Amino acid sequence: MNDLPMRGRVALVAGASKGIGAATAEAFAAAGAAVVLAARDTAALESVARRIGASGGNAIAVRTDVADAESMGSLVDRALEAYGRLDAAFNNATDGPLPAPLADIDTGEFDQGIATNIRGTFLGMKFQIPAMLRSGGGAIVNMASIAGLNGTANLAAYVAAKAGIIGLTKVAALDYADQGVRVNVVAPGPILTHHLEAAGAEAQRLAGLSTPMRRVGDAPEVAQAVLWLCSEQSSFITGIVLPVDGGQSAGNKPPQMYRQGQPMPRPAPDMAGGT
């Protein structure tokens, strides 16, 4: 078995400063790829690059605004200057307003969410695809969410943006399916990133109970899904949406079922999420 399945490959991760992006960058490096890290937070990017270097990997940090065409074009140019090719990309950057009912969302913050998510993903692919074609092909994974499939209250900008990313991905997959570039989407459910960590234990407990697996995922679990979609193991897969959601997209799994005409007993403590 090849312990470094991506040796000799070059991977780009936009939104690599923390969370799922950083975990995915480290997963690419652990698989042998040279990694180009992109985000607006240079200090955080350099910290990820140092971790990769300390583990024997190879990474460079490039400050990037994903919503700016010149910045995204320069990012891909830096990847080609540093490593001579581009084989894989993960478009993970996101931004947008805090949760609120649709009519209460600030217009400028809504626009920022659309610009970062939809425009950023479009610009990523616009410059990544030609570079991959010159390298003989490649694989792109875009970050969506289960919320882009099912909708979530109080997240109008986020849901619209993630649904748009899914649509963009399907079109890109069709456009380049016969040219050696595969394009797919990951759609996570609740994942323990800095946002959920900051929300505290109760938010994490409730998020876990929302999944049939009764737990939240972690960033490395999403990273491994991205790595697989960029690997030769998924060579006949393009245009799909891969949920990483503990079973949320499969349907509902009530913590306790009732029988018609019979009273429902009180749940046991573990079924209620207690101790």
Which short descriptors sum up this protein?
Rossmann fold, alpha/beta, 275 residues, 44% helix, seven-stranded parallel β-sheet, two-stranded parallel sheet, 9 strands, disordered C terminus
Q: What's the Cα radius of gyration?
A: 20 Å
Count of helices? 9
Give the overall silhouette: globular
Kindly state the number of beta strands.
9
CATH architecture: 3-Layer(aba) Sandwich
Low-confidence stretches: 271-275
Give the strand line-up of the largest sheet.
3-2-1-4-5-6-9
CATH-assigned homologous superfamily = NAD(P)-binding Rossmann-like Domain
What's the number of structural domains? 1
Overview in brief:
The protein has 275 residues and is α/β, with parallel strands linked by helices. The chain has helices spanning 19-30, 42-54, 69-83, 107-135, 147-150, 156-176, 194-199, 201-209, 219-229; strands spanning 10-14, 34-39, 58-63, 88-91, 138-143, 181-188, 191-192, 217-218, 241-244. The protein is globular and about 70 Å long.
